[in-house]
Design goal:
Elements: E1 2-3, H1 8-28, H2 32-52, E2 54-55, E3 66-68, E4 73-83, E5 89-98, E6 105-107, E7 112-120, H3 132-135, E8 138-144, E9 150-157, E10 164-166, E11 173-174, E12 179-183, E13 187-193, E14 198-199, E15 206-207, E16 213-216
Length: 217
């Protein structure tokens, strides 16, 4: 595992604030049964934040015809939805919700070429709510496979997420299972697939980025 390159500053800030709080607790709070539990709690936050921003090593299962999960999390929606930003047609949408305990690094779902990418500012509703897909801050990316199929996905900010990182550039050749970005704190991924795609997951399933095949094109 490695720390995501866009989170060095965030993790360093957590460490600095934690060090200051621990110093204050140990120097000014003389009651050990108050100071030490709080100190251990702060150290736990440091460990959690380090793990949270790690990019895990995975064995990619995706290809140009096998679509894998963009992120770790839970399938909360599988439905037919109209994608109005780029594809402008009905698609099968799969939504993956990430909570605080999931790794938040994101990965390319298929192998192909980036046809479209765009950032959209917006609100910060809780990511599991339906209106979050349309109204929350998000980044959209569409990948065209060598077979001509299009896979479109949104990285959605949640109620606490305040930064979406996406490495996509139009014309970029991408490979399923390689990192495509990260979303900081609770968030969601919406994947839009052709309506004839064979869906391989169900609502309620827990998925792992790179390794869980969510659909076959």
């Amino acid at each position: 595992m490695r720390l995501d390159k866009n989170t060095y500053g965030t993790v360093l800030l957590v460490y600095v604030i934690s060090a200051v709080l621990i110093f204050v607790l140990q120097y000014f709070v003389r009651t050990w049964w108050i100071a030490w539990p709080l100190t251990l709690g702060i150290l736990w936050v440091c460990v959690w934040q380090t793990c949270f921003h790690m990019v895990p090593r995975r064995t990619p299962a995706g290809s140009s015809t096998l679509v894998t999960a963009v992120a770790d999390g839970k399938i909360v929606t599988i439905e037919t939805a109209y994608e109005k930003l780029f594809l402008k047609r009905d698609c099968t949408m799969i939504s993956i919700y990430m909570d605080f305990w999931d790794v938040h690094a994101n990965f390319w779902p298929v192998t192909g070429t980036v046809d479209y990418t765009e950032y959209y500012p917006g609100e910060h509703f809780l990511a599991f709510k339906p209106k979050a897909s349309e109204e929350n801050e998000h980044t959209c990316t569409c990948i065209r496979t060598r077979e001509g199929k299009e896979v479109f996905f949104k990285q959605l900010a949640g109620g606490f997420a305040r930064r979406i990182v996406c490495y996509a550039k139009e014309g970029m050749e991408v490979k399923a299972g390689e990192q495509c970005g990260i979303i900081k704190f609770g968030s969601r991924i919406d994947i839009y697939l052709p309506t004839d795609a064979e869906i391989c997951v169900s609502v309620g399933d827990t998925v792992r980025a790179c390794e869980t095949v969510v659909a076959k094109l």
